[in-house]
Amino acid sequence: MTRHARNCTAGAVYTYHEKKKDAAASGYGTNTQRVGKDSVKDFDCCCLTLQPCRNPVITKDGYLFDKEAILEYILTKKKEYTRKLKEYEKQKQKEEVSLQMSFKSNTQIAFQERSSSIVAYSMGAFHLVTQIDTNVLFLLLIECQESSTLDGNSVSNMKNGKDKMLPSFWIPSKTPGVKEISLQKPDKTIYCPISGKQLKVKDLIPIKFTVVQDPDDKRSLIVKQARYMCPITHDILGNSVPCAVIKTTGDVVTMECVEKLIKKDWINPLDNSKLTPSDIIPLQRGGTGYAFVNDSLEGRHERPVLQA
User: Fold this and answer.
1) Averaged over 182-198, what is the pLDDT?
2) Does the pLDDT value for residue 74 go beyond 60?
3) Which of 101, 13, 56 is nearest to 237 (CA)?
4) Which family, according to the similarity comment (predicted)?
C-alpha cells in the first residue's frame, strides 16, 4: 500500500490531464484549440480570399473585400437566382399541366357516366338521348385529334416526347423512391457573406491605403510587416490598431485620429472638406489573438462521440 503523503498515488481520481490525453488517443470526442494570431486574416486582407486586396472596397458595415472577389460573388449569386427561378417556373408549369390533365380525366369520367345513361328504343325512329354538354364534346374531339396525329403504334421510349421524361436513376433526386420537393420562389436579394445584410454594388465604397515610404527597405510590399500608415498622423496601421475610413475620400485613418482631430470641428485635414458622422465608417479589425477583439478564436474538430 502506498504511503499517504502529498504525492499520494492511491486515490481513485481520473485527472483532467489524463482524461484529455486518453480522449485524444481514442479518436472520439470533439477537439478544441485556440486559434492564434497567425491563423486570422490581417486588417488589409479580403474577407473572401483572405489575401491582401488589390482594389479594396468596403461595405456600409466596414467589411473589407477585394473588388474582383466581391463582384464575382455577386455575379455567382445572380446566376444562382436565375437557375432557381427557372426551376421554380418549370415546377409551376408542371403543376398547371397536371391540373389540366386531371380536368380532362374528370371530364372523360363524367362523359362515360352520362353516356351509360343513354336509353335507346328500337321501336320506330324514336330515340331518347340525354343531353350532353357541348364543352365535354369539344374537349373529347380535341383529344381524339391529338391522339390521331401521334404514332400510337410505336413502343419505343424515345418517341412521342417520351425522351424528355426518361428517369435518371443515377441522380439521387430522380430515383423513383424520392418524394418531390415543393420549391419556393427564390429570394432576389443578395446578402453580404460576412454580415448577412443586404448587399448592393452601388453601396461598395472604394478605399485607399497610404503606403509607408521607407527608402532603406527594399523588400516587397507583401513581405513587409509595416505596410500602411495613417495619412494624417503617420501612425503605422496594424491588426491591433483600430482604423476607420473617411467615406468622402476613401482614406484609411486611425480611430485615435478621428477622436482627437476630426471630431473637433468635423473637417477633413487632407482636403479641408466638411464631414458628418455618417462619413466615418469603422473598419473591421483583423486578428490579434485576443477574445476582446475577435469573437471566434476557437477551432473545433468534431469527431464521433460514444454515448452511454
Assistant:
1) 89
2) yes
3) 56
4) Belongs to the NOSIP family.
The C-alpha atoms of residue 229 and residue 271 are separated, in whole angstroms, by 18
- Separation CA 262–CA 103 (nearest Å): 73
B/e letters for 20-48, b = 16+ CB within 10 Å, e = fewer, are eeeeeeeeebeeeeeeeeeebbbbbbbbb
The full set of domain ranges for the chain reads: 47-117+181-206, 208-286
Tell whether the torsion through CA atoms of 279, 194, 222 and 40 is positive or negative. positive
208-286 has which fold? Herpes Virus-1 (3.30.40)
Examine the pLDDT at 205 and tell me if it is beyond 80: yes
